[in-house]
Amino acid sequence: xxxxxxxxxxxxxxxxxxxxxxxxxxxxxxxxxxxxxxxxxxxxxxxxxxxxxxxxxxxxxxxxxxxxxxxxxxxxxxxxxxxxxxxxxxxxxxxxxxxxxxxxxxxxxxxxxxxxxxxxxxxxxxxxxxxxxxxxxxxxxxxxxxxxxxxxxxxxxxxxxxxxxxxxxxxxxxxxxxxxxxxxxxxxxxxxxxxxxxxxxxxxxxxxxxxxxxx
Length: 215
Description:
Structural class: mainly alpha
Distance between the termini: 63 Å
Number of strands: 0
Order of helices and strands: HHHHHHHHHHH
Number of helices: 11
Oligomer: single chain
C-alpha cells in the first residue's frame, strides 16, 4: 500500500469521533455543547461519567496505536529510519484526524489520548513512564490539564536523556519536542485558569471522604 493511502487511512481512523458518537447514541446529547465543549476523553469523564469516559479514552488511544501499526503495510524495513519516520507521520495523521474529524464537522478534541496511543505503539516503555508521571501529578494536584502538560514536557526529557532509542534520528527528536510544545499550546486556556485558580479539579477522593463522613 502506498504511503499516501496509509496517511489517508490513518487520518480517517483518527477522525472517528468517539466522544461525539457515544454522547449522541447513548446519552442523546452532543458532548461539544456541554462541559468544556471538547470532544475528548477528559470532557467525557466530566460530562458522561467514568464508564463512558474510560471507553472513550481507550478507543481514542487505540486510534493512535492502530494508525502507527499501519506502517507494517508498507514496503519499508521495520525499525529502519524511514520506517520510524513513517510511524511518526501516521500517528500525527491520526492526531490531526482526532482534532479535526471529518466525521464530526472537523470539531474534535485535543488529541492527548490519541497521541499517547501513538507513543505507546512506537515506544511502549516511554509511554508507560509517561503514565506514571501523569498519575503522580494527578494524585498530587488533581488537575488533569496540569498532569497532561507535565507528562508532555517529560516526554522529550525521558526520550532523549534516559530512553535513547531512536534518539539519534532527527525526526524523532523534533517530534518529541514539538509534542511538548503543541500540548502546552493547546492547553493555553487551561494554563490561564490554573494561574487564576479557576481550573476544575478531579474529585479523586470524593467517595472515600463520603464514606469517612458516614462512619
